[in-house]
Amino acid sequence: MISYFSDLRYKEVIDVHSGFRLGYVCDAEFDDAEGRLVSLITPGKAKFFGLLGREDDYVLPWDCIVRIGSDIILFEAKGELLRRKRRKHGFL
Question: Domain spanning 5-84 has what CATH number?
Fold first, then answer.
């Protein structure tokens, strides 16, 4: 099966145990030295309809991914979910 990163962006990420919906994949981390996928990143929840920005991103290690289906990605959270601050982009 051949998959592209653009295909992953349209798949929703859901926790297997709690059913918590994290949203859709927005980014991925790759290890240049080994040439492998390290983690998937989903954006945090929007604050006040997105006008006040977003919460920190969720970082899902590749080891936690249980299954990738045709329209969904299932993961198993091992303890606390990793969070990362969003990078600030300039206005102009």
Answer: 2.30.30.240
HSE (side-chain half, CA atoms, 13 Å) at 41:
15
Contact status, residue 54 vs residue 42, Cβ threshold 8 Å: no
Q: Please report, for the chain, the start and end positions of each structural domain, with discontinuous segments joined by +.
A: 5-84
| Predicted model pTM | 0.76
**Whether 42 contacts 58, CB under 8 Å:** yes
- Could you give the CA distance from residue 49 to residue 43 in angstroms, rounded to a whole number? 14
Q: Which stretches does DSSP call E strand in the chain?
A: 12-15, 21-24, 27-31, 36-42, 57-61, 65-68, 72-75, 82-84
Read off the pLDDT of residues 45-91 as tens digits, 9 standing for 90 and up. 777 776 677 778 889 999 989 999 888 999 998 776 767 776 665 55
Q: Which residues make Cβ contacts (< 8 Å) with residue 84, sequence separation at least 6? A: 41, 56, 57, 59
